[in-house]
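dumping the sequnces here before i forget
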Amino acid sequence: MAQSHPQSRPFDRMDLALRDTDTTLPAPPWELEDLIEEADAPGQRRSATTGLGGELTARKQRSLWSDAWRRLKKNKLAVIGLFIVATFSLIAIFAPLIAPYGQAEVVDYRLARYAPSWTWPMGLDANGRDMFSRMVYGAQVSLVVGVLAQAIVLVIGVPLGAIAGYFGGATDNTLMRLVDVFYAIPQLLMVLLFVNWWGPGLLNIFLAIGLVGWVTEARLVRGQFLSLREQEYVHAAQVAGGSGSYIIRKHMLPNSLTPIIVALTFGIPTAIFTEAALSFVGVGIRPPQASWGQMVAEGSNPGYIETSPHMLLFPVLAIGLTMLGFSFLGDGLRDALDPKGSRD
Amino acid sequence: MLRFALNRMFWFVPTLLAMAAVTFFIMQATPGSPFDVSDKQRPEDIARLEALYGLDKPIHEQFVRYVWNAVRLDFGISYFARPQTVNDIIGRTFPISLHLGAMATLFAIGVGMTLGVLAAVNQNGIVDYFSVTLAVLFYSMPSFVMGFLLILLFVVWLPDIGVDLGFRVGGWERPQDWILPTIALGAAPLATLARYTRSSMIEVIRSDFVRTARAKGLTEQGVVSKHVLKNALIPVVTLIGPIFAAVGTGSFFVEQVFNIPGMGKFFVTSMQVKDQTMILAVVLLYGVFLAAMNLAVDLIYGVIDPRIRY
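..and the predicted 3d for all of it:
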C-alpha cells in the first residue's frame, strides 16, 4: 500500500526516508572520540560536518598523514609494532656504538658456548665470540637487506605496474603475461637459485630478493591504476590535456600511495626473513659476518642444542620479534591510511 | 567452466616452459661442475663424465633434449647421488613432503576455520580474544622460527623438568614425529585462515539477510549454520591456494629444521652440490603442483558459489 508507492504521499515518504537513515546508512566517517574532542576544542577538528540544523561547521584542514598518525596512535598493536621497528632500526644504525665487541672478535676461545651471564648477557657462541655483539650486527645485516631489497622492488615494480595499468592494451598484456610467468615460480626457490648462482654475500642477497620480488609490487600497482584510471578526476586531467606521465605522477601515484606503503611495510620483513632463511640453509651471509639466520644454523647444531640453547634462542627470538613488529605496524598502517577498508 | 579449465591448462605450458628455461639457464650459469668434487680428480675424468651426461654439447641442444625428456617424465640420473635416477629419489622423498604438507594444511584449515567461526560467533568473548591473540602471534611467524621455538620447548626444556612427551628431532617413522613439524608448518596459515574467517563471518552476521533470518524467529544455531556459514566461508576458500604455496615453500625449511628426509631437505642439499638434474625436476614438480592446486581451488570456487561464472 502506501509504503510500496512512497511518491503518493509526502508524509509516508519522509517516514521511510527517516527509517532508511536509521538502518542502512553506512557508519559515519568520524568516530565518537573525535566528536568528544570536537566538543572540547571546537573548530579545530573535522571537515565540514552537517549539524542538526543543517548549518556547516568548518574545521581546520588536516592532511592525510596527520589523520593517519592520529588513528595509528590509537591502535595499541600498531604502537607496539612501531616501537619494535624503531628499536630494531636504531640498534641496526648504531650497531658499532652499541656492540661491545666486533662481530668477528673472539672474546675467549676457551669459553666457547659460555652461557649468558652478567659479563656477556647473551653468552658466547661456538667460537667464543660475544653473542650480544653478533646479534646487534645481525640486525644491521637484516635492516640493510630489508630496505635495499624493497628499494629495488619499488624502482622496478612501481613504474612497470603503473605503465601497464595506465596504458592498458598491448603494453599491459605483454607486461602482465611476463609477470604471470614470474609469479608462478615460487619466489623463495628463485631467490635460492639466484644466490646459489652469484655466490653468498650481502649484495647478492638483496639484489636477488629485489629482482624476484618486484613482480608482486607490479601486480599490485597495476591493479590500483586500473581502477584509478576510471575515476572522474583522471578523466578530467586527461581532458585538460595532461600527458600520461604527468597524470601518473601527479594524480594516480599519490592516490596509490596507501597500498604501496602497506606493501612496503610487509615487504621489508619478508626480505629480512628470506635473508635469514638463506643464511640458515647456508647460502646466505658468509661467516664470520654475523647474520641471524646463520646464527640460527649454528645454534641448531644437534651437538649444541641441548647444552647451549642460548645460541639458538636469541637469534630465533630476534627474527620472530622483528617479523611481529613489522606486521603489527603494517596492519596498523593499513587501517590508519584507509579507514574505509579496515577490518570489522 | 570447461572452457575456463582448458584455457587455464593451456597457460600451464608456456609457464612451465619459462620456469624450466629460467632454472636451466641459471643452473648453466652457476659456476662449477657437478662432477668437480675434489682436487684429486683428473680433468680428463671430469670431461668424460660430462660427456657421458651430454654436458659437452651446445647449451640449446642440451635444453631441447632436457625439455623433450621432461615431457616424457624422464628426468635422468642424479649427478650427485648417481647411479640413482631423479625419479627414484623424488619417488622416495616426495611422499614424505606431501604427507607433511597435507597434514599441515588440514591442521591449518581445521583449526583455523573453527577458531575463526567461534571467534566471530562469540565476538568480544573469551574465545574471540584467545583466537585473535593466537592469530596475531602466529601469522607473521616464519615456519622455521616456530619450529625452533617448539623444539626448544618440547625437546629441550620440558624433558629437562621431567615432562618428556617423547618428541625428538630427526625422525619420521613414529606418528609422534609428525606432530611438531605439522604445527610449525601449519601455524602461520592457521592464523591467516582464522583472521579471514572471523572477519568474513562478522561481515555476513551484520548483513540484512541475517537480520531477516533472525527476525523470522530462527534459532541462533539455525541462523549461523544455515545462513552465515555458507556465505561466510566462500571467500575463505580463495585463501587455500596461497596456503598451499606457503606450506610448500615452508616445508623446505621445516624439513631442514626437523631433519625430515623429504624433498625440501633434499633440494637444499642438491643445490649446494649443484645437482642440476635434481634441481630442475624439483622446480618443475613444484610448479606443476602449485598450478594444479590453484586451478582446483578456482574450479571448486565456481562449484560452491553459483554466482561465479567463468
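The two ends of chain A are 38 Å apart (CA to CA).
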